[in-house]
Amino acid sequence: MTYSISSTEETTLVATTVGQTTTVDPRFSACKGPITKNTGEFYLMRNNGFLSFMSSFKLHLSSSKVKWLVIYNPDIGLCHNISIFNTSQVIDIPSEFKVTRNEIEKKGVHILTSSKTDLYALYKDSITNEGFFVLPKEKLSTSYVIPSFVPSGGGESFIGIVATTVDTDVNITLKLLNKNETVSYNNTKYGDGETISIHLAERGTLELSSNTDLTGTIVQSNKDIAVQSGVDGAKVPVNSGLMNQLLEMVPPVKELGTEFIIPPLFDNKPFILRLIATHPNTSITLLGKQLKQATKVVDKIGGYIDINSNASIKVESDKPIMAVYYQQGEFKPVVPFMVIIKPEGKLEGVQEFTIPNDGLRHHILITTKSTEYPFLQIDGKGIIYKNPHMYDTESLNSSYIVARVDIGPGHHTIGSLYPSVLTVKLGIIIYADSDNDIAYGYPV
User: Fold this and answer.
1) Could you say which of 37, 98, 133, 168 would form a disulfide bridge with 163 (CB–CB 3.0 to 4.6 Å)?
2) Any idea of the CA torsion for 245, 248, 249, 252, to the nearest 10 degrees?
3) Where would I find the IgGFc-binding protein N-terminal domain in this sequence (predicted)?
4) Quick check: 130 and 337 in contact, CB under 8 A?
5) Residue 420 CB partners (closer than 8 Å, separation 6+)
6) What is the average pLDDT across 15-39?
């Protein structure tokens, strides 16, 4: 196991959520209504991607309660009113939502659903695939630290920003791995450590791009925003193995944590774990089978540690950090993808999820407390009937259990065998691979 440390200049990050009153555009009422406190609301971007001219961007909905879904953006004249008949449904995001890089537009994808639900987005072109979990509006905030990677094959790294309300001011303080690179916006070139300031209307968008790794870039705003980041095409490790897109919706600082268990998603296949600081002088302690307990200090916000491993790692920090898993693509059938790991303190009572019907091999990684695991059920049966692969977390002195389950496409339920007595809080990563150099992964 090896590690490296990178840092950036000090900035102050404050994890806040701006209180906002939801108002409904009168044109929306004619599109679909009524809107209630149980309505699900999402903002996201249809990112450019590696081959945007021949790409698809689809939402996957998983709910037995949702009756309708609306894709809404009056600025481009779109209001798609979709009735939901199945517990699992796939919805195309029209090409009109594709953004132009390094330009402010009003192309935010505004989604409303008849009730609260989970949404996943999957990007696909003829060369790359990736997916991400769409954070609902109530999970968004004003302070973010960006995960990224080094681009390959002519692709670019990118940061996508969507405003959720009017008069949104955003400051983007760049961290560029290659200090000779710049980011162009509004006929001006910005270098490492410089700040780009923008003003966005509701559903206003900006996708900044670069030829270098943008990890550690800081995004701050006066009102809640949605943020996506990644790389059109990347080889993990750099310039080695197969290429794929890396893509995630970035959780705000307030959703990050201090304790993680990270296993290899594929047995004995190497991965890179990147731990990004959100506060200065963050102390990070690592424990793994290939590494004796070691503590490292990251002195600047946006600085990070990279760990190369093919075995489980336990991470503890004295301040919230972001843990990003990069699957390496040196050994087939695995190709690179990126997953932001949920901290142990942020696990939730997930009740249902959908596995895409795309011909790939699908898996879910489940993390939950060891005291709750015996009561976990999938599709109405105890998890033992799914023949789970158990990871060794006991040797890492962890009170959590991590298990992998191979699973088929379609709608699935998950939770407690005795929900009236015990709620099982868990984290799930959905991921897939194939013999055709296709893979993706995203948290739930």
Assistant:
1) 168
2) -140
3) 132-424
4) yes
5) none
6) 51
